[in-house]
Amino acid sequence: xxxxxxxxxxxxxxxxxxxxxxxxxxxxxxxxxxxxxxxxxxxxxxxxxxxxxxxxxxxxxxxxxxxxxxxxxxxxxxxxxxxxxxxxxxxxxxxxxxxxxxxxxxxxxxxxxxxxxxxxxxxxxxxxxxxxxxxxxxxxxxxxxxxxxxxxxxxxxxxxxxxxxxxxxxxxxxxxxxxxxxxxxxxxxxxxxxxxxxxxxxxxxxxxxxxxxxxxxxxxxxxxxxxxxxxxxxxxxxxxxxxxxxxxxxxxxxxxxxxxxxxxxxxxxxxxxxxxxxxxxxxxxxxxxxxxxxxxxxxxxxxxxxxxxxxxx
Length: 313
Hints:
By secondary structure, the chain is an alpha/beta fold. It has two domains: about 75-145, Roll (Ubiquitin-like (UB roll)); about 150-305, 3-Layer(aba) Sandwich (Rossmann fold). Helix content is about 35%, strand content about 20%. Strand 4 and strand 5 form a beta hairpin.
């Protein structure tokens, strides 16, 4: 059976075209072209950073202006220096040093430099410098303490425990219950300071030796009248009411000293026999060596007393 249609041949040959995609053909809004959400956030962040930088610059400018004004204002000129803790140092001298050698404006003062300058004064051991606005400076001074009587070129001088020379010994220092030290380098204050490091080391070693001996008994150091520190690796002492030099060496000071003082009978016996003894050497473990004072250079007599360890540690 044959089926026929009434549609013309041209219609059968025509293709069906789908309608256009409206989403693709929609035009972009000109306002959104070239701009994204990320770009907007960056721009806002830049604006905020610029605002903070501007505020910081204004603050710095204000501070600088205030500082310039303050350093030039008379209200901040130093008017008074208050000094506390002076006994040997003259407070007026310290005040004069500050006023003479440092800027008048208290805000321009370098407190570290002020402290360093005042520490150059002989008696100054420690200085604390405080600024009290608007116009005061406060000094808290800790002075050196006399600790050693030193014989130097026939004169008695005073040093502190660090060996810093403080001046001549005077009765106002009170009674210093310490032996006289001998054997430093230098003949006067100026040459002494040229060898300050070595002299301080010698005095420190001498004080350490006395402290070790005193740890056995305080009476031990009270019978010592002189300490020879000329060789800090071989210290020597002289006892009260005696002329013999007692050699202690560089260590075991207490052990060696008690070995001698706990055997006084032997020493008295030798003194009665030989009249005068020049040196007592305690550096040997098994014996005490007594050296006689030479009246005749041609004779060389040395008495050796074996340590019997009677009552000795």
